[in-house]
Design goal:
This protein has about 400 residues and is α/β, with parallel strands linked by helices. It is built from 19 helices and 13 strands. It has a seven-stranded parallel beta sheet with strand order 3-2-1-4-5-6-7, sandwiched between helices. Strand 11, helix 16 and strand 12 form a beta-alpha-beta unit. It starts with a helix and ends with a helix. The chain binds uridine-diphosphate-N-acetylglucosamine (UD1). Uridine-diphosphate-N-acetylglucosamine binds next to helix 3, helix 7 and helix 14.
Amino acid sequence: MSEREELGNGDLLQHRCRRFIKEATLKRLDCIVGTRPNFVKIAPIIRALLRREGFAVRLVHTGQHYDVALNAVFFDELGIPDPDVNLEVGSGTHTEQTARIMLALESVLTNDRPDMLIVVGDVNSTLAATLVASKMLIPVAHVEAGLRSNDRAMPEEVNRIVTDSLCDLLLTTERSASDNLLREGARPERIGFVGNVMIDTLHACLERAVPAGRTFDEIGAGVVASRAEKSGYGFVTLHRPSNVDDEAQLRGLIEALCEITHAIPLLFAVHPRTRAKMEAAGLGRLFEDGRLLATPPLSYLRSLGLMREARLVITDSGGIQEETTALGVPCLTVRDNTERPITIAEGTNTLVGTSPAALKEAAADVLVNGGKCGRVPELWDGNAAERIVDHVRTFLAFR
Ligand code: UD1
């Protein structure tokens, strides 16, 4: 039925006026995502925005991650609406990827200018979107601001520093991140300590997490599954360029994992970048004896189920350091530094460095002594997205 038929002529003008006023008063927010961890962070923010009156949300996907396993499956499981815009930039060098996102996003923002952008995390999509919006004088809110590894060899650290220096609203997951921002000269009124939105998603999804046994069955890991029932298992992810791009380093770590499997079976969810490097180095055969079990990247609900039931997690991911802390599962982080120090100070995370010998030693220690106990950090309570929306609303109201 048309609007005219539905309302009758007399009401139509009044209705149109009301709708115009309502739409004109809506604050238009663009949420930018590009990679797997971005999807996990944006899901509760979109839900919280749509629960409140007064916001119109447009979801812009840069296309940085495009494989089903890194992308579509996350949208399905996390209940994220289909992107309104997909820039489809794909892979490339950092400069190529960043430049392609900037060019494509500039024309989207020029055609239809939002009141504010929300960017999350520290990936190239985060940086590129922030640069474009800042040049166009569109305010930007950064969720997960202020984290610092103090290691500029890490591409994400460069992304974090530049993003935070440009953003108007800096929303932090831990107090040390707010302190970093203050030290760098950010004005206190730009900073909001809101807690960890990744943990909002974890809380929302825990009941639906796929039991580990089912994942083992479905990936055909019968032998490992029966051993895992007796001894438990470890869950592994590695994808940082510093660990996987150098052949000798990658070989050393994979050989260390193989040795750890003498004590406990390991399930390794292999990122496409790691897979490509392993194949190029002829390391794929190390998966063939069936003790170190490889799978393609897993969906969020499968990873969550596997982390929750694991005896230990070995990773170089940022998000997994936080998720294991929230779950109380011992985590060995194969890096020399972390931008998430609260997972060490209060959580279950241990930095083991990048040497294969140190990794083996740390894993043996967890298996003998049970690993680190921790507590859940302040404001990692499942309500970070609501606090983010409060800050965004206040910021826009006072502009
Ligand atoms: C990116 C982020 C990293 C984040 C990770 C999560 C940056 C600088 N890095 O790393 O911080 O922890 O996402 O996964 O933004 N590839 C595919 N399919 C895809 C996407 C990538 O096969 O859908 C392969 C391509 O060979 C590509 C490589 O993975 O060249 C790296 O992808 P890229 O998006 O550049 O970085 P990630 O390593 O995924």
